[in-house]
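Now for one protein, fold included:
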Amino acid sequence: MKKSSAKNVDEYLAMLPPATKTTLEKVRKTIKAAAPKAEEVISYQVPCYKYNGPLVFFAAFPHHCSFFTVNKSIIETFKKELLPHKTSGTTIHFTPEKPLAATLIQKIVKLRIKQNEGRGLVKKKAAPAVKKIQTGKSPDAEKVKEYLQKLQPEVKKEIEAVRKIIKKRRSKTK
């Protein structure tokens, strides 16, 4: 498939050959059923589903389709069920003749939802501690200063340079 100019998933699917379109419409329907709260968008020029961050993507290519799981652990978790398909990194390759099973897509999407929800909880729990460190009102800020004093001068300079960059970027975003 040529580079996509689609602005939404309907447009993306409309550009595909009939067999590929039918296969990816089933993938789409399965994702939407497994993740009804997910936002459907075009990202990186392919269909993407987002819920507390990216969940999964799918795409059509001239000789195969791809299902992008976003997280490598998914491929490992479903290794046995994925044996009939080629995998690479976070990607599962399939064809209209040898499609991904809807039950497997559901399992992957539901696990991705749990992973993203867990990531969101970690961020929420960490937020107060991060805020304390940023304002310098944390006992950890003193520990950081003590640690920096013990470092070799070259290492200390590099860390201080990175800290300045971070502080500068923070001040721009406020």
About this structure: The mean pLDDT is 86. The CA atoms of residues 132 and 138 lie 5 Å apart. The chain has six helices and six strands.
